[in-house]
Specification:
By secondary structure, the chain is mainly alpha-helical. It has one domain: Winged helix-like DNA-binding domain superfamily/Winged helix DNA-binding domain (Arc Repressor Mutant, subunit A), CATH 1.10.10.10. It has helices spanning 23-32, 39-50, 56-68, 88-114, and strands at residues 72-74, 84-86. It has a two-stranded antiparallel ribbon. Helix 1 (23-32) crosses helix 2. The chain is elongated and about 55 Å long.
Length: 117
């Protein structure tokens, strides 16, 4: 059995592996959820749905972490483009993370209403 401090960090089977992976990882997996994309297409898509401009260092650092966690995989190079796709483990991790965010969001909204804010 893995020590509890390691679970989720190196183990995609962790309950919410994306909690420690960072916001860029969540945005990238969300973008890849509708199909493979190369770096520039990821940057454009994320900017379109989240209004955030990821820099190349942030993007490729997050892609490297996601690939090491087996949450994304690189596809064969197309011309000079390097496309990536989400894996089944990546989709499961994204689902678990979004479920967790929905629970927190619901509780936060309820508490705001109860506090009259």
């Amino acid at each position: 059995m893995m020590p509890s401090g390691k679970r989720g960090q190196d183990d995609p089977g962790g309950q919410d592996v994306l909690r420690r992976a960072g916001d860029a990882s969540v945005l990238i997996l969300t973008s890849l959820a509708d199909g493979p994309k190369h770096g520039y297409a990821l940057i454009q898509d994320i900017n379109g749905f989240a209004g955030l401009q990821l820099g190349p260092g942030t993007l490729y650092g997050a892609l490297d972490r996601l690939e090491r966690l087996d949450l994304v995989e690189a596809l064969p190079t197309d011309d000079r483009r390097h496309p990536y796709q989400i894996t089944a483990a990546g989709a499961a991790a994204l689902r678990a993370h979004l479920d967790s965010l929905e629970r927190v969001s619901a509780i936060g909204r309820l508490r705001l209403r109860l506090a009259g804010i």
